[in-house]
Amino acid sequence: MSSADTSKLIAELDRLAAEFAGEIGKLATEEEIRLAQARYLGKKGKVSDLMKALGKLPPAERPAVGEAANRAKSGIERAVGERLSALAEASLSADLARVVDVTLPPRGAALGTLHPLTLVRREIEEIFLGLGFAVRTGPWVESEWNNFDALNTPPDHPARDMQDTFFVEGGRILRSHTSPVQIRTMLAGPPPIRIVAPGNVFRRDDDATHTPMFPQMEGLYVDKDVSFADLKGTLLHFVHRFFGPNLGIRLRPSYFPFTEPSAEVDAACYLCGGNGQVDGRSCRLCRGSGWIEIGGSGMVHPNVFRAVGYDPAAVTGFAFGMGLSRMAMLKYEVDDLRSFYEHDARFLAQFR
Ligand code: 2NL
Q1: What separation in Å is there between the alpha carbon of 258 and the centre of ligand 1?
Q2: How distant, in Å, are the alpha carbons of 140, 149, 180 from that of 173?
Q3: Which pTM value belongs to this model?
Q4: Helix (H, G, I), strand (E, B) or coil at 248
C-alpha cells in the first residue's frame, strides 16, 4: 500500500464522520440514534471496516491514520451526545409548555337517577296526599290472619295455597298484597281512615308477565257515609292527575273476597284518547280497545270491618289496589316488565 492509499483512507474517515453528522439530524429517538451509532462505530461498522486496512500500511503512516480514526470516532460520539441532549431538551420544553388550567371547575361525580318504579310510586303518593290520604307502610313478613283471615279470605281459598303464597318458618308468610297495612291501621284506631299503602308484595309467579315480587299500592277510605260515588270520584281524579285531564274511567263488575260490590278499574287510553285508533291504526297501548286496565276496587266487605272491630252498620269504606310496575309500563310505555329488575344503566338513565 502506498501513501496515496493512506491519504484516501484518512479522507474516507473524515467523510464518514461528516456523513454521520448529516444523518443523525433526521433521527428523532434515542433508539434510532444508537442504531446509527452502531452502524458506524460497532464491530461491523463502517469505521471498523476501514480500519481493517490499517495493518497493510507502512508502519510510518499508521499513526496519521490512527489519528484520523480517533477524530472520526470522537466526532461521531460528540454528534450522538449533542443530538441526544437536544432531544431531551425539546421534550422537557414540550412538558413545560403544557398548560393546565387549575382554575377550571371540577367535572363532579355523575348523578344517579331514580328508578322508574320509585318515580311512579312517589307521583301516586303525591296525588293521594293532595286528597288528604296519608302514606303508610308495613312489614313484608306477615301473619296469615293479617293477610287473609281479616280480609274475608277463608282458609280453603286458592290464594292461600302453597302454590300461590310464600310460607316462612314460624307460620308466617310473605304478604301477597299490602292490605295487611290497612288491617294494622284499622286495628290501631277508629275511623276516619284515609291511607295509601305502597310496598313490595310476593306471589309464587315467575314468567314473562309476572315477577315473584312486585310493588303495589292500595288505598283505603273508611268513614261515615263513604259511598261508591266517592270511590268513583277519587279514581277519576287519580286518572286525571296521573294520565291526563278529561280522560274517562270505566268500572267493570268483578269479585274480590274483601270488597262488595267489587269493580275492575279501566282508564280511557291516554294515547288514543279512548277511541282505539291512532292515525287510522289500532292504538299500540290499549290494542284498539280504547281502555287500559289500572287495578281493582270496591266497597269494603262488612266482614273486614267485623274482623278489625269496626261496626259495619256505622261505617262504610272503599278500597282499591294497583300494580306499580303496570302503572310504570303504561306511563313510560315500557314493553317488558323484566326491564325494571335487570338494572341495565342504559334503560334506567332514561328516567330523569
Ligand atoms: C288489585 C285489586 C284491591 C283492595 C285491593 C282492600 C283492602 C282492605 C279492605 C278491602 Cl283492608 N279491600 N284492598 C280492594 C279491592 C281491590 O286490589 O287488582 N290489585 C292489584
Answers
A1: 7
A2: 8, 13, 12
A3: 0.72
A4: coil
Ligand 1 mean position, distance from CA 219 (Å): 8
Instruction: Convert the pLDDT of each residue in 57-104 to its tens digit.
Output: 888 888 888 888 888 899 999 999 999 998 999 999 998 998 888 899
**Coil, strand or helix at 329:** helix
Closest Cα to atom 15, ligand 1: which residue?
297
Q: Phi and psi dihedrals of 113, rounded to 5?
A: -125, 160
Q: Stretch 130-141: mean pLDDT, rounded?
A: 98
Instruction: Name the residue with the closest Cα to ligand 1, atom 7.
Output: 179
Q: Which atom of ligand 1 is nearest to the CA of 180?
A: 11
d(CA 2, CA 185): 122
Residue 350, all three cell numbers: 332514561
Instruction: Find out whether the peptide bond into 261 is cis, omega within 30 degrees of 0.
Output: yes
Phi, psi of 251 (to 5 degrees): -110, 125
* Cell matching residue 117: 318504579
Please work out whether the CB of residue 197 comes within 6 Å of at least one atom of ligand 1.
no
